Amino acid sequence: MNALNPVYxxxxxxxEAIRTHSKITRNDALGKTEKLFEYVDIGANRMYDYPHQLxxxxxxxxxxxxxxxxNPSLLIADExxxxxxxxxxxxxxxxxxxxxxxxxxxxIMISHDISLxxxxxxxxxxxxxxxxxxxxxxxxxxxxxxxxxxxGLKNAFPNINILEQNIVSIPGSPPSLIxxxxxxLFADRCPFSQxxxxxxxxxxxxxxxxxxxxxxxADRAEEFRQLAQNHDIWKIKL
Length: 238
Known about the structure:
Blueprint: H1 10-21, H2 26-39, H3 56-67, E1 74-78, H4 86-103, E2 106-110, H5 114-120, E3 123-128, E4 131-137, H6 138-143, H7 148-155, H8 195-199, E5 205-208, E6 211-213, H9 221-228
Parallel strand pairs: 1-2
Antiparallel strand pairs: 3-4, 4-6, 5-6
Helix pairs in contact: 1-2, 2-3, 3-4, 7-9
């Protein structure tokens, strides 16, 4: 919504980006922009519209077109489907995956939507307050989570296979990062934290091949998985 210049036609903004970084004529840049619009499922005639004439989903796709205009080896998508309805989300997500496969580039997806990450990525990093809590392959993280924060995220995400379920959010709020506390930054919201969590810095531990977790009690993961299913365990005193 805020990335496009409101007084320039959307196509011109992509032409400008192409010509700024490539030795190419204006006509060639226009031709490439037309192809980019078609690539993201927008009619080429819409490249002559102003941003306010496009829907939110179309603006998102224009930004994707601009992002891939120079054939980048790495595409970073920061909340690419935020504030879009589910149908438009699906279309954009599908197109991002297709683009990544066709261009053979790498993709970093940044999102609070764990289901979005599951559909688009091979590896996942779970972060909290700027720190890595857990990282590994998608299947390992989803089916064998180790960190209490990961367990809390799974609890807060609905399962379509379970009709009756209580979605439980993690109590409390993220900490201030102006003067971060010692130890694990998730300790104050973690139902399994102990004194050591608040006093000592925890290092990443490889619990399985390629699967790392930052928790002093990684050896109790199976116990935590069982306890985390009890929603009352998350009703901690803050």
